[in-house]
Design goal:
With 215 residues, this protein is an alpha/beta fold. It has 2 domains: 137 residues, Rossmann fold (3-Layer(aba) Sandwich), CATH 3.40.50; 67 residues, Putative phosphatase, domain 2 (DNA polymerase, domain 1), CATH 1.10.150. Helix content is 40%, strand content 12%. A 6-stranded parallel beta sheet has the order 3-2-1-4-5-6. Strand 4, helix 8 and strand 5 form a beta-alpha-beta unit. Helix 1 crosses helix 4. It is globular and about 55 Å long. The chain starts with a strand and ends with a helix. The structure holds 6-O-phosphono-beta-D-glucopyranose and magnesium ion (MG). Keywords: Magnesium, Metal-binding. One of its GO terms (molecular function) is beta-phosphoglucomutase activity. Belongs to the HAD-like hydrolase superfamily. CbbY/CbbZ/Gph/YieH family. It holds the Pfam family Hydrolase. Its cofactor is Mg(2+).
Length: 215
Protein backbone atom coordinates (compact mmCIF):
# COMPACT_ATOMS: atom_id res chain seq x y z
CA UNK A 1 0.00 0.00 0.00
CA UNK A 2 1.39 3.41 -0.89
CA UNK A 3 2.22 6.00 1.77
CA UNK A 4 -0.44 8.72 2.01
CA UNK A 5 0.67 10.33 5.27
CA UNK A 6 3.88 10.95 7.23
CA UNK A 7 3.78 11.25 11.03
CA UNK A 8 6.78 13.06 12.49
CA UNK A 9 8.03 12.77 16.02
CA UNK A 10 8.88 16.31 17.23
CA UNK A 11 11.81 16.30 19.69
CA UNK A 12 14.97 15.16 17.86
CA UNK A 13 13.27 14.90 14.45
CA UNK A 14 11.80 18.36 13.68
CA UNK A 15 13.74 20.32 16.30
CA UNK A 16 16.61 19.58 18.64
CA UNK A 17 15.22 20.08 22.15
CA UNK A 18 17.27 17.17 23.56
CA UNK A 19 19.94 19.39 25.09
CA UNK A 20 17.32 21.45 26.95
CA UNK A 21 15.59 18.32 28.28
CA UNK A 22 19.02 17.11 29.42
CA UNK A 23 19.86 20.44 31.13
CA UNK A 24 16.47 20.52 32.89
CA UNK A 25 16.86 16.99 34.25
CA UNK A 26 20.53 17.58 35.18
CA UNK A 27 19.60 20.66 37.23
CA UNK A 28 16.85 18.77 39.05
CA UNK A 29 19.11 15.75 39.68
CA UNK A 30 21.92 17.99 41.02
CA UNK A 31 19.51 19.78 43.37
CA UNK A 32 18.24 16.43 44.66
CA UNK A 33 21.80 15.03 44.80
CA UNK A 34 20.94 12.20 42.43
CA UNK A 35 23.59 10.91 40.03
CA UNK A 36 22.66 11.64 36.40
CA UNK A 37 24.68 11.62 33.18
CA UNK A 38 24.28 11.72 29.39
CA UNK A 39 24.15 7.93 29.15
CA UNK A 40 21.12 7.80 31.47
CA UNK A 41 19.70 10.75 29.51
CA UNK A 42 19.67 8.62 26.33
CA UNK A 43 17.08 6.35 28.01
CA UNK A 44 14.68 9.31 28.35
CA UNK A 45 14.32 9.76 24.59
CA UNK A 46 10.68 9.39 23.53
CA UNK A 47 9.35 8.41 26.97
CA UNK A 48 6.94 10.58 28.98
CA UNK A 49 7.94 13.11 31.64
CA UNK A 50 6.80 10.93 34.57
CA UNK A 51 8.47 7.82 33.14
CA UNK A 52 11.65 9.84 32.59
CA UNK A 53 11.53 10.87 36.27
CA UNK A 54 11.18 7.21 37.32
CA UNK A 55 14.36 6.39 35.36
CA UNK A 56 16.21 9.25 37.11
CA UNK A 57 14.99 8.16 40.54
CA UNK A 58 16.53 4.68 40.01
CA UNK A 59 19.80 6.31 41.23
CA UNK A 60 18.22 7.87 44.33
CA UNK A 61 18.45 6.33 47.82
CA UNK A 62 15.38 8.25 48.89
CA UNK A 63 11.81 7.03 48.38
CA UNK A 64 9.61 9.83 47.01
CA UNK A 65 5.83 9.92 47.49
CA UNK A 66 3.57 10.34 44.44
CA UNK A 67 2.96 13.98 45.43
CA UNK A 68 6.68 14.66 45.66
CA UNK A 69 7.23 13.01 42.27
CA UNK A 70 4.61 15.26 40.67
CA UNK A 71 6.35 18.30 42.18
CA UNK A 72 9.77 17.11 40.94
CA UNK A 73 8.41 16.65 37.40
CA UNK A 74 6.81 20.10 37.53
CA UNK A 75 10.10 21.63 38.67
CA UNK A 76 11.99 20.04 35.79
CA UNK A 77 9.31 21.19 33.37
CA UNK A 78 9.66 24.77 34.60
CA UNK A 79 13.44 24.64 34.04
CA UNK A 80 12.85 23.11 30.61
CA UNK A 81 10.20 25.67 29.61
CA UNK A 82 12.52 28.50 30.62
CA UNK A 83 15.16 27.05 28.25
CA UNK A 84 12.54 26.59 25.49
CA UNK A 85 12.23 30.38 25.31
CA UNK A 86 15.55 30.32 23.43
CA UNK A 87 14.15 28.19 20.60
CA UNK A 88 13.54 29.92 17.27
CA UNK A 89 12.74 28.77 13.69
CA UNK A 90 16.55 28.56 13.18
CA UNK A 91 16.50 25.45 15.41
CA UNK A 92 14.49 23.41 12.88
CA UNK A 93 16.78 20.50 12.01
CA UNK A 94 18.56 20.21 8.60
CA UNK A 95 16.39 19.07 5.71
CA UNK A 96 13.09 19.21 7.63
CA UNK A 97 11.66 22.30 5.90
CA UNK A 98 12.40 20.93 2.41
CA UNK A 99 10.87 17.54 3.20
CA UNK A 100 7.70 19.13 4.63
CA UNK A 101 7.34 21.40 1.58
CA UNK A 102 7.90 18.53 -0.85
CA UNK A 103 5.37 16.30 0.94
CA UNK A 104 2.79 19.09 0.80
CA UNK A 105 3.54 19.64 -2.92
CA UNK A 106 2.76 15.95 -3.50
CA UNK A 107 -0.46 16.13 -1.41
CA UNK A 108 0.93 13.70 1.17
CA UNK A 109 -0.64 14.47 4.55
CA UNK A 110 1.66 15.39 7.44
CA UNK A 111 1.18 15.07 11.20
CA UNK A 112 3.02 15.34 14.51
CA UNK A 113 3.13 12.31 16.84
CA UNK A 114 4.99 13.38 19.99
CA UNK A 115 5.04 12.25 23.64
CA UNK A 116 5.59 15.85 24.72
CA UNK A 117 2.97 17.94 26.48
CA UNK A 118 5.04 20.96 25.42
CA UNK A 119 4.53 20.11 21.76
CA UNK A 120 2.08 23.02 21.02
CA UNK A 121 4.49 25.56 22.60
CA UNK A 122 7.46 24.20 20.65
CA UNK A 123 5.58 24.19 17.32
CA UNK A 124 4.56 27.80 17.92
CA UNK A 125 8.10 28.87 18.80
CA UNK A 126 9.52 27.37 15.59
CA UNK A 127 6.67 28.80 13.48
CA UNK A 128 5.23 25.42 12.43
CA UNK A 129 2.01 25.54 14.49
CA UNK A 130 -0.22 25.77 11.41
CA UNK A 131 1.92 23.61 9.13
CA UNK A 132 0.54 20.13 9.95
CA UNK A 133 -2.74 18.52 8.88
CA UNK A 134 -3.04 16.95 12.36
CA UNK A 135 -1.17 16.77 15.64
CA UNK A 136 -1.19 14.17 18.39
CA UNK A 137 0.91 14.71 21.51
CA UNK A 138 1.43 14.06 25.22
CA UNK A 139 -1.81 15.91 26.00
CA UNK A 140 -3.87 13.40 23.98
CA UNK A 141 -2.59 10.07 25.26
CA UNK A 142 -2.89 7.74 28.25
CA UNK A 143 0.12 5.59 27.30
CA UNK A 144 3.44 6.96 26.12
CA UNK A 145 5.73 5.41 23.47
CA UNK A 146 6.57 2.51 23.03
CA UNK A 147 2.77 2.24 23.19
CA UNK A 148 1.40 2.99 19.70
CA UNK A 149 -1.44 5.25 20.97
CA UNK A 150 0.06 8.59 19.90
CA UNK A 151 0.61 7.41 16.30
CA UNK A 152 -2.79 5.70 16.03
CA UNK A 153 -4.50 8.96 17.11
CA UNK A 154 -2.43 10.90 14.54
CA UNK A 155 -3.43 8.47 11.73
CA UNK A 156 -7.07 8.68 12.74
CA UNK A 157 -6.92 12.49 12.70
CA UNK A 158 -5.46 12.27 9.17
CA UNK A 159 -8.29 9.85 8.23
CA UNK A 160 -5.69 7.28 7.17
CA UNK A 161 -5.14 3.63 8.09
CA UNK A 162 -1.84 2.71 9.83
CA UNK A 163 -0.74 0.87 6.66
CA UNK A 164 -0.93 4.17 4.75
CA UNK A 165 1.38 5.98 7.20
CA UNK A 166 5.13 6.37 7.62
CA UNK A 167 6.51 7.33 11.04
CA UNK A 168 9.74 9.35 11.37
CA UNK A 169 11.47 8.71 14.72
CA UNK A 170 14.75 9.35 16.54
CA UNK A 171 14.04 7.18 19.62
CA UNK A 172 14.03 3.42 20.14
CA UNK A 173 10.72 3.71 22.04
CA UNK A 174 9.24 5.58 19.06
CA UNK A 175 10.53 3.07 16.48
CA UNK A 176 8.88 0.32 18.52
CA UNK A 177 5.62 2.33 18.77
CA UNK A 178 5.61 2.83 14.99
CA UNK A 179 6.19 -0.88 14.28
CA UNK A 180 3.52 -1.96 16.81
CA UNK A 181 1.01 0.45 15.26
CA UNK A 182 1.43 -1.29 11.88
CA UNK A 183 3.08 1.70 10.22
CA UNK A 184 6.31 1.85 8.29
CA UNK A 185 9.18 3.52 10.13
CA UNK A 186 12.03 5.80 9.08
CA UNK A 187 14.64 5.97 11.87
CA UNK A 188 16.85 9.07 12.01
CA UNK A 189 19.46 10.58 14.32
CA UNK A 190 20.02 8.57 17.50
CA UNK A 191 17.81 5.73 16.21
CA UNK A 192 19.47 5.45 12.79
CA UNK A 193 21.05 2.06 13.63
CA UNK A 194 17.80 0.57 14.97
CA UNK A 195 17.33 -2.60 12.92
CA UNK A 196 13.56 -2.69 13.54
CA UNK A 197 13.02 0.36 11.30
CA UNK A 198 12.17 -0.14 7.60
CA UNK A 199 14.62 2.56 6.49
CA UNK A 200 17.07 4.88 8.17
CA UNK A 201 19.01 8.06 7.54
CA UNK A 202 21.48 10.22 9.44
CA UNK A 203 19.03 13.15 9.28
CA UNK A 204 16.24 14.53 7.07
CA UNK A 205 18.85 16.15 4.84
CA UNK A 206 20.28 12.73 3.95
CA UNK A 207 17.14 11.20 2.43
CA UNK A 208 14.91 12.15 -0.51
CA UNK A 209 11.12 12.20 -0.41
CA UNK A 210 11.15 9.52 -3.16
CA UNK A 211 13.19 7.24 -0.86
CA UNK A 212 10.85 7.97 2.06
CA UNK A 213 7.73 7.10 0.11
CA UNK A 214 9.24 4.01 -1.50
CA UNK A 215 9.49 1.91 1.71
C1 LIG B 1 9.63 13.39 24.12
C2 LIG B 1 11.09 13.46 24.51
O1 LIG B 1 9.44 13.93 22.86
O2 LIG B 1 8.81 14.07 25.07
C3 LIG B 1 11.26 12.93 25.93
O3 LIG B 1 11.87 12.70 23.61
C4 LIG B 1 10.34 13.69 26.89
O4 LIG B 1 12.62 13.05 26.33
C5 LIG B 1 8.90 13.58 26.40
O5 LIG B 1 10.45 13.15 28.20
C6 LIG B 1 7.92 14.33 27.28
O6 LIG B 1 8.16 15.71 27.15
P1 LIG B 1 7.45 16.85 27.98
O7 LIG B 1 7.76 18.09 27.15
O8 LIG B 1 5.98 16.54 28.02
O9 LIG B 1 8.06 16.88 29.32
MG1 LIG C 1 12.18 12.16 19.61
Amino acid sequence: MSIKGVIFDLDGVIVSTDEYHYQGWQRLADEERIYFDREINERLRGVSRMESLEIILEKSDRVYSQDEKIKLAERKNNYYRELLKKITPDDILPGVRNVLEELKRRSIKIAIGSSSKNSPTILERIGLDTCFDATSDGNDIKNSKPDPEVFLIAAKRLSLSPEECLVVEDAGAGVEAGITSGMRVLAVGSAKDDKRAHISAKDMDSITVDEMLDV
